[in-house]
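Input protein
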Amino acid sequence: MNSEKNILMRSISFLRHLLLRQHGQSLVETALILPIIFTISFGMIDLCRLAYASTVVEAAAQAGARAGIIDTTTIESAALAKMVGLDTSNASVVPNLSNTNQVNVKVIYEFQFITPIDTQITLTGDADMLVR
């Protein structure tokens, strides 16, 4: 009876030792995997931001061209007003009025990532409208 109790105590002690070691192992695994998960998550957020910025820059060029049909002095303000959610200090609006019956507006935006990537992407939106 005493030997069975001794074997049972040794088994419990051994299992406790394994569980404690497993707890430390999962902590190390979490510490190794967490930066990878965060990098992938913020990378996906950056890609969504890039898609949004690209769409907004194109829409801003179209809005500037529409405003240019009516009054050429409002091209830049109309284009910048359309850039909701973007930093307009990184944007430039270039109207081209060389042709008397056509307005061309180009919007250039410098996109910056939030993830630690040392690159910058230049997004360009271009729109043409006919003056009637």
Remarks:
- The chain has two helices and three strands.
- Strands lie at 91-96, 102-112, 120-130.
- The radius of gyration is 30 Å.
